[in-house]
Amino acid sequence: ETTMKKIAVLFCTALALLLGSCEKEEALHVDPIGPKYNLEDDPNDPIQHFIYETYRDFGIVVITNPTEADYAYNFTNKNRLNLVAPPQDPAVIQAGLAFIKKNFLDLYSAEFKKQNMPFTLVMAKSIVNESHGGSAAVDAYASTGMIAISHIDENIGSLSDEQAKAYKAAINACFWSSYMGAVRNMFSVPEEFYQVSGGESGSEGDYGKYISVQKYVLNWDTFEYEPNPDYKDPDPADWYKLGFVNVVDFTMTEDPDYPYYDGYYYTTPNATEDLSLWTNFIFATSSSEIATMGQTYERIQQKYEILKKALEDAGCDLSLITQ
């Protein structure tokens, strides 16, 4: 009984303290934490107005002057990037926003953007991906909650049609392969895509083959170099017929001092590289161009149809991107 009374007293004391704290709640004052980003509207500032509207309509925070805190971390891992912020000239930023709007944001419906776009869109002058010891400059980079877009500099408003088309393809390919695919798992291709070039396992076949072709070969009888009778100039048809739209590490050697070493070499992509190359290719190439290739190269046509359907099933309107 005594124990029960002690418990009752403790309970009543705790309750009194709780009620007392509730009565005093209005008297408490806590300084508000300021927002990380300025998302307020300023109709007189086209840049700030764009930032406001993009966040209001789609929930996307556009970052025009990023610091390391904006791109270095993705909740679980560190993004190993060397990212340079754009020049903070209003004319450059406005031209960059216009490019991103036309070549990325406007290609997707309002509902798609609200449901699928990353939380932040980071503008950059340049991006170098240093993951896995690399040092490759990239046109765009995506990770959890973020997509970063490069080439926002003094030239962004005067790109040639060819440059603009290439950047457009790279940005959208990055979004689909790295963000919608790797991050959100909302885009994937069936095993049949890889089996076209990789055989039954989908990872062997013609994947990852090293090809080396020399202009001259050593005659072991005379110990002299002679023209290689089987040599031919590199031709994309060599990898198109295997179902690849490009190869990896293509290098051609031409040295007038040592001509006997002239030739070229490359490696056919592995399965991961193949999908990345194909995704960029499908966004950079019109359907009519691909159809023409498909008439000659059966494997190109097969992989195109598989990838196209996978993208469309995930909500991608290719006609808007490749027009």
In short:
The protein has 323 residues and is of the alpha+beta class. The protein contains twelve helices and twelve strands.
Q: Based on CA inertia axes, which overall geometry fits?
A: globular
The biggest beta sheet is recorded as: 4 strands, mixed
The strand order across the widest sheet is 1-3-7-6
Spans of at least 5 consecutive residues with low confidence = 1-34
Fraction of residues in helix: 40-55%
Distance between the termini: 84 Å
Number of E strands: 12
Describe this structure in words.
The protein is of the alpha+beta class. It has helices spanning 2-23, 46-58, 68-71, 90-103, 110-116, 161-183, 191-198, 237-240, 271-284, 287-296, 298-313, 318-322, and strands at residues 61-63, 81-84, 120-123, 126-129, 136-137, 140-143, 146-149, 210-214, 216-219, 224-227, 248-253, 263-267. The chain has a four-stranded mixed β-sheet with strand order 1-3-7-6. The chain has a three-stranded antiparallel β-sheet with strand order 2-4-5, with no helix packed on it. A three-stranded antiparallel β-sheet has the order 8-12-11, with no helix packed on it. Helix 6 (161-183) crosses helix 9 and helix 7 (191-198) packs antiparallel against helix 11. It is globular.
